[in-house]
Amino acid sequence: MRKERILYIYPTLSSFIKGDAEILSREYEVTHFRVHPTSWHSLLRSLISQLFHLIFNLRKYDIVYIWFADYHSFLPTLFCKRFKKRCYIVAGGYDVCREKKYGYGSFTNPIRGFMTARSIKNCTTVIAVSKNIKQIIRHVFPSTNCVTIYNGVVLKPGKEDVEKESLVLTVSMASTAKNVFIKGIDRIIEVADLMQETKFILIGTERQLLEKIGYKIPDNLQVLGFVDHSHLQEIYSKSKVYCQLSRRESFCLALAEAMLYNCNPVITNIGGMPEVTGKNGFIINEYSAQNCSFVIKKALEAKTNSLGRERILSEFTIETRAEKILNLLESN
Q1: Quick one: 205 and 325 in the same domain?
Q2: Are residues 236 and 104 in the same domain?
Q3: Does the residue 158 lie in any domain?
Q4: Best exposed site among 23, 60, 73, 260 by fewest CB in 10 Å?
């Protein structure tokens, strides 16, 4: 029996996008199409290439599966609606936001917002990565079919008997000044400067970028940039606290990974992060450096327990996500 074919479209090959590729390939024949949005020229070239690929090859596919509603989802959803193909969009957060104050979200740009909105209206189903994102979609697009399927942790659980250090860890991928601000990295720098006796580690953002923006990095904050998964797991294992002070966050996979390694979470009450922590950890409702430092000290003094770890294993594994995605595609 022939496997159904999926056209898998995405802008970057991040860990969660790789995770979905692996899931889809279990039951389907998957063709990858990557769009390059790094500049207007590369984006335009990608969209022209996408147009010709859809014209000559769409008939070969049974399903189109797209990460993020954006420029790159407009043509596929339009073609799929016209030719009655099933089409799914994974909404990751940026694509359904309009934060004018921060200049963040697809809907801060009229053209981008139009293409995003048409994509969401034309697709078969939107897969939201958190209930928070689903709520936004339901509010803006009440007639759109939308389901929540959480991102899944790929990492294996660490050993429970590893001795924790008085260490505060943050993992945030930021490559621009805007992303640094949205991810609350400026807050991490501010709090670390206030807690000189405590060691902080920031992973995923380059020190050179922070210094270029104008931040002075305190001596107790170690900025590591990109690290591979094996090194990241070592740092998760020894960190007592995981701290995420984002201004916007749809889910936060690193938070779930840290909880899997028994880190005490400290988060801002934003987006999908409270859905990840549940009743575990420490939530900051209103940010100030003084308040945050007080909460982090409490988290460092608190005992670690396995409740957070058990929550991740029951709700947020890659296998849980795989089961729900494959059931969704099969049911349609």
Answers
A1: no
A2: no
A3: no
A4: 60
CA-CA distance, 155 to 213, in Å (whole number)? Answer: 33
Q: What's the rounded Cα separation, in Å, for the pair 105 and 94?
A: 5
Element spanning 74, H or E? helix 71-82
- Cα separation, 267 vs 254, whole angstroms: 12
Residues 100, 217 share a domain: no
Mind listing the pLDDT tens digit for each residue in 67-76? Answer: 999 999 999 9
pLDDT for 94 beyond 90:
no
Structure-token match 């501010």, residue found: 190
Q: How far from each other are the two terminal CA atoms of the chain, in whole angstroms? A: 19
- Residue 132: which of 286, 267, 10 has the closest Cα? 267
Comparing 269 with 229, which gets the higher pLDDT?
Answer: 269
Q: Closest Cα partner for 79 from 127, 134, 7, 23?
A: 7
105: left (phi over 0), alpha (psi -120 to 50) or beta: left
Give the pLDDT confidence of 108-130 residue by residue, as tens digits. 889 999 999 999 999 999 999 99
Rounded to the nearest 5 degrees, what angle is found at the Cα of 17, between the Cα atoms of 325 and 105?
A: 100
284 part of a folded domain: yes
Position 45, amino acid: R
- Using CA atoms, how far residue 231 sits from 119, 234, 241, 244, in Å, is 39, 5, 17, 19
pTM over 0.70: yes
CB 9 within 8 A of CB 51: no
| Residue of 58, 103, 101 whose CA lies nearest to 81 | 58
* Residue with tokens 């690290």, as numbered in its chain: 227
> What is the extent of the structural domain holding 22?
5-152+317-331
Number of domains in the chain: 2
